[in-house]
Amino acid sequence: MQNQPTILQKIVQDKAVWVDNKQKTFPLSQFQQQIVTADRDFYAALAAASHQVPAYILECKKASPSKGLIRAEFDLDAIAQVYKHYASVISVLTDEQYFQGDFRYIEQVKRQTMQPILCKDFMISPYQVYLARYSNADAILLMLSVLDDETYRTLADLAHSLGMGVLTETSTEQEFERALALGAKVIGVNNRDLHTLTVDMNRIVRLVEKYQEQIPADVRLISESGIYDHTQVKAIKPFAHAFLIGSSLMGSADLNNAVRSVIFGENKVCGLTRPQDVKAVYENGFLYGGLIFAENSPRQLSLRQAQELVVNAPLRYVGVFQNQAVEFVEKIAKQLELYAVQLHGTEDDAYIAELSAKLAGKTQIWQAISVDVQAETVEYHDNPLVARYILDSKHGAQQGGTGRVFDWQIIPSELKPKALLAGGISAENIEQALVQGCLGVDLNSGVEQHKGVKDLAKMTACAEKILKA
């Protein structure tokens, strides 16, 4: 009995049939004379990418063989309106059978953006290269897992003659060696094995470590597949200049903040009181904006004040409360449609359970863990209803807003993946804070002129260091 073809082999077999049929219904002779040279430079768009500040190729993908339907409401216009603010290149899936793509999507995205458009398909024929350019693509994907060297050269040379760039995809040592020998300018490493669909996020690390002496300085390395959060970006960017991300973004209802979370991480500025500060927080790449309702805070807001703030930028807003009635917290959370409520007092498990039931999964619950600046251990109780912990400094009776720093070395390792680090963080010490391994940082007094009034220069300085961390 013959072995069944792998998923990739089946896709390539079906692609050959598709190409044959397409050439009959829409022959090259019908459109070749209309093809003009590409007008957006794929290679230039990635040239400035570095290990410190990587570039992003963001992908428009409706479905895939590994996940099936990913984005039921595939509003390409809305997707393009988000991607154009963050991407260096935008990738568009055009395979119909397995990814529910379409060559017409390329022009639809291109009309709304300034970035080069990568045609993502299983290229096996010169006809597809011509079709990609006719459809207004600026670059194509060539997969060494499905192409021999001769066919690769034919397709790559044709693409270059039409002004298009080439993303050369590899997934094995042999393919990576071939990419180098073939003189590929942009080499992608697919972390997903397209024969089995399994993901290995260390694949690019192993390949780059093994071949680092042979990789030309001007070659750009792209990590493809499996990127879901910023911690992965931080771990892999010493080995990659750019990241191609699709499925994790397409699966998110809040696409804009999904993109921001992956690129910038989960960082927060708390104690917002002015519209201009809200806008600055958003423009500097922070994901969360903190609105304080705790009664003893000099940055306390009324509901009306908060309502006037949240319309200024689409941040994920977090309301900060301290030992206040569950009904009050619920009211504020629902009226402001808060992303999370942050409990900064002595709220116990019973309080959290009651609040969780009232919020009904629509708003996350975060809890502050106040650590005395003299403490030698972090005392905490992990509650499964709490989505994030805020590790904040305590000085005497004052919890939070102290501007003081506790000993970060005592943070338990198991707490870091669901914690934001707060307390006295500023541009002077944020680099040290960012290497502690927490999910992100929570800034307040360290980016202020005085209580409740943020300092744009301080905020921008912190944001720049976050981006490079």
Strand content: 15-25%
Distance between the termini: 54 Å
The number of helical elements comes to: 17
Side-by-side strand order of the widest sheet: 1-4-5-6-7-8-9-10
Task: Summarize the helices and strands and which ones pair or pack.
Blueprint: H1 7-25, H2 42-47, E1 55-60, E2 63-64, E3 68-69, H3 76-83, E4 89-93, H4 104-110, E5 117-120, H5 126-134, E6 139-143, H6 149-161, E7 165-170, H7 173-181, E8 186-190, H8 203-211, E9 220-224, H9 230-236, E10 242-245, H10 247-250, H11 255-264, E11 268-269, H12 275-283, E12 288-292, H13 303-310, E13 316-321, H14 326-336, E14 340-343, H15 349-359, E15 364-372, E16 388-395, E17 398-399, E18 419-422, H16 430-434, E19 440-443, E20 448-450, E21 453-454, H17 456-468
Parallel strand pairs: 1-4, 1-10, 4-5, 5-6, 6-7, 7-8, 8-9, 9-10, 11-12, 11-19, 12-13, 13-14, 14-15, 15-16, 16-18, 18-19
Antiparallel strand pairs: 2-3, 16-17, 20-21
Structural description of this entry:
It comes from Actinobacillus pleuropneumoniae serovar 6 str. Femo. With 469 residues, the chain is an alpha/beta fold. It folds into 2 domains: 7-260, Aldolase class I (TIM Barrel, Alpha-Beta Barrel); 265-468, TIM Barrel, CATH 3.20.20. The chain is 34% helix and 20% strand. It contains 17 helices and 21 strands. The protein has an 8-stranded parallel β-barrel, surrounded by 5 helices. The protein has an 8-stranded parallel barrel with strand order 11-12-13-14-15-16-18-19. α5 (126-134) packs parallel to α6 (149-161) and α14 (326-336) packs parallel to α15 (349-359). It is elongated and about 75 Å long. The termini are far apart.
